[in-house]
UniProtKB/TrEMBL annotation:
Pfam families, per database record: AsnC_trans_reg
Ranges where the Transcription regulator AsnC/Lrp ligand binding domain occurs: 6-76
Species in which this protein is naturally found: Pararhodobacter oceanensis
Source superkingdom: Bacteria
Protein name per UniProt: AsnC family transcriptional regulator
InterPro entries: Dimeric_a/b-barrel, Tscrpt_reg_AsnC/Lrp_C
Amino acid sequence: MQCVFVQFRCTPGKTYEVATAIYDREIVSELFSTSGDWDLIAKVYIPDDADVGHYLSENLFDVPHISRTLTTMTYKAF
């Protein structure tokens, strides 16, 4: 499994609605509300046989009221 972090910027006033929709899909391992430029951050495990971009697009990025995303790939450090 490949671990990625995805940050979400939501349409103003829709963050809770977006968070609920993301959580209901049971795709993310963890989901947090954040301060700063982004509204939410999710930890997502991508199956080894899946393309990261396609997987996220097909499973998360079609949630209404997401205005922007930032995906951070992770790599084993040790």
